[in-house]
Amino acid sequence: MSDAQSVEADGSASEEVPLSGADIEPDEEKPLVVENLRKTFGGIVAVDDVSFDVEAGTITGLIGPNGAGKSTTFNCITGALKPDSGTVRFQGEDITGLRPDVVANRGLVRTFQIARALDEMTVLENLMLSPKAQLGEKMWRSVFPVARGEVIAQEKELREQVWETLEFFEIDHLAEEYAGNLSGGQQKLLEMSRAMMTEPDMLLLDEPMAGVNPTLEEKLLERIHDLREQGYTFLLVEHDMDVIMENCERVIVMHQGTVLADGTPAEIRADEQVIEAYLGENI
Length: 283
Description:
The protein is an alpha/beta fold. It has helices at about 70-80, 100-105, 125-130, 145-170, 185-195, 215-230, 240-245, 265-270, 270-280; strands at about 5, 15, 30-40, 45-55, 60-65, 85-90, 95, 110, 200-205, 235, 250-255, 260-265.
């Protein structure tokens, strides 16, 4: 866990939250490898022989017009959909077709375009529910004194981690607010906070900036970069081209269910096929 400091946009320093699970050395390996992924719905081919990988410790963008197959690809990677064929490997292990909870427990965690919080619970309570393998999930531990003591000790430790995470995402002032009362941008920060409480190695972000105002968008991007510096890996779907081109080291372009191009933002901007299919002449 790092004790280093991150620098805020106004020049002030803030402590990095000591989040676990980010021990991957950048460029040491490719944690996510997708090979020949295919998914059909009836006679419609949504994902057709898609292959790409994501390097550790990077921010990679996945873009394309509506209907390009981005969300279906995300769903096949994270277990929400079972691909018809192809392979998904994470940290060298085949995770193809595993349930979403199993995939998440392996350290590959996603967020959604529409944030999904427990609206009638507070922000703090939402985060307290997020960590996996909590001792208090077993009823018998509430009966036996020794076991109950272990539950109490773990809950105290988790509460401290929750507060560190809330402070890192600068939503600690909302800790006692009901999640359903948050703005769209605040809900995205809450969803990222919940994801980090699961101790992931890699995060797949589905349109993280959708519905977020410019101030909170800047804050969310700062946090993503802070986490990338700590060693976390990101793959994000986003329609805001400025966000993609200014924040991703690499961009994968999908079109009609296939990978059309794969390269740096500069290479993607100059790719004639991409310009014709998606970006337009003024990109």
